[in-house]
Amino acid sequence: MRILYRCWRGCWPTMGLLLVLTWGCGGDQIDPEYKPVSGTVTLDGQPLPDAQISFVPPGTGSSGSGFTDEYGKYELYYAARRGGAKLGENRVFITKNKPSTGKRGEFAGVSEADMEMLPARYNRKTELTATVEDKRNEINFDLKSK
Question: In this structure, what is the dihedral angle of CA atoms 127, 133, 136, 138, given to the nearest 10 degrees?
Fold first, then answer.
């Protein structure tokens, strides 16, 4: 009886650990309302690096956001690094700050709008929309500076 008790008492920590590990493996469900979105952003035909891009669904739901790399390529993520954007029509916002010269106080008293490098039609007063479909989506944007 004592041997059985020791074995049983020793098994509980092991069983608890296995339960936690198993629970952690299956907990990363992907929301079926969100699908992968990637693409390229160019400005006047050239890749646009270091820009932020956001897909904002109407009504409820998390926005999908990401940044472009040196080649203008982006991938969107929502809620805790899960890839994608919400299915359906989304408003798209693309922003990029003007480069800094590194001078102290350079942007003191400057509005956020004045720091923006891109025309307002791509961000504050966006005219951009994109439809996220029930598949892997590649959505490219060719922006014009004028």
Answer: -30
